[in-house]
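re: that chain from earlier
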Amino acid sequence: MEPTEQGHFSVLVVEDEPDHAALLQAAFSYRFFPCTVHVTASSEEAIDYLLGTWPFVDRERHPLPDIIILDLGLPGMGGLDFLSWLSGRAEPWSGAPVVIFSATADEEIRRRAFAVGARDYVVKPADFNELVYAVEEVLRRWRPGGEAAG
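^ sequence. v structure.
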């Protein structure tokens, strides 16, 4: 998947907790990563974003993601169900790597997430500096042109 601009890429964060979403956005901007972060608060809103339905019709303002960061404990359609939906799609954006950021380290949930298409699984760090480091590692591995991309 090509970055939205040369060297610049788009990240979609699917996170229902406003404080967690704000911390993730702050972690991305803390080191001036060359990306634009868009946040949706539910799987359903993320689906609307990906499909380009209102209010996400304008792809300049709402570009397709190069990476998706997904919380599993979402209201309505949970994160695992969203992953199942995404893995059944044929659109080019359906291949964007999905990285789970979850509060749980439960091995069974981790295994299920990988089984339905997650590419990485990160337990949400409590410390902001650790969160910045986790975001750096995710971007190093999964950004377009990164070592695991391709």
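Residues 9-142 form a domain with the Rossmann fold fold (CATH 3.40.50.2300).
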